[in-house]
Amino acid sequence: MDIIQNRSDRFLRLRDVMEVTTLCRSSIYILIKAGEFPSNYAIMGKRKAWLESEVQAWLLARVSASY
Question: Is the pTM of this model over 0.85?
Answer without folding.
Answer: no
